[in-house]
Amino acid sequence: xxxxxxxxxxxxxxxxxxxxxxxxxxxxxxxxxxxxxxxxxxxxxxxxxxxxxxxxxxxxxxxxxxxxxxxxxxxxxxxxxxxxxxxxxxxxxxxxxxxxxxxxxxxxxxxxxxxxxxxxxxxxxxxxxxxxxxxxxxxxxxxxxxxxxxxxxxxxxxxxxxxxxxxxxxxxxxxxxxxxxxxxxxxxxxxxxxxxxxxxxxxxxxxxxxxxxxxxxxxxxxxxxxxxxxxxxxxxxxxxxxxxxxxxxxxxxxxxxxxxxxxxxxxxxxxxxxxxxxxxxxxxxxxxxxxxxxxxxxxxxxxxxxxxxxxxxxxxxxxxxxxxxxxxxxxxxxxxxxxxxxxxxxxxxxxxxxxx
Length: 356
Fold this sequence. Notes:
alpha/beta, Rossmann fold
């Protein structure tokens, strides 16, 4: 196997995996077809092959990568979508078994899918079998877990130890309770989930050291401490108490204890600034991801910069394309803190875990 420390990133998007890897000094090459995402990656300094992951040949890549990461488009599997992936699940399992047997039936099976994008979740196995990287890290919505379990069984037959489970990104410092299914596999070490760095509530110090801090809130991440201000004018007592909690670059004179609301339905998810954000979803609901004040009045929409921070990117990340395309990239990206946590666990020489 090559000693070249490059990672191949499938469905690379704007650079979520890449940013996490960069922070650890690991070099990444992404395959991505979307023009706006490729432009964002270029502006951020990430190397990209602009191509369709499903049709790109693996032979030219052989021997060039020690690791493989991937997050296939999740629209057909997401609870926010039409869930066509559920209808196509058996075809995905058939494609996995066929690839493991050395038969490529993807084209024929794709034609039978309710949504051709459903079959994209099998692409990482094709690359893993052909390139035999030292390790594999995949991320998807929780509904894909049966498919990941199947991929793990195939990889174990090829000498990998594996772990599949659901992780919450808030446990790794992201100001967002984003739950995703993770597959980890390695040919060189045992694997398991990375040790959480944060907890739902702050943990006390123990004989073993300091406890984990509480989840990062939106106020923490956006630089707007939750604090009350009392306006008394020239009087000794009384006055009006209000909160200054609001994104620091957008505080107005009528700033209140703002709430982030996902969608405009009666049961839309709402989170106050002293909590982590919910899973950020955009697409058709983009116009409805907004800040509301104490009175339930819409203040304004979430900005791209705020969304980037809540997704674990730096606030000045160079998003390219229209506003809609920027939010689309942002919502689909792997949070860099999560990517970094997964890679650190895979490459650490003392990584521990039990093969599943």
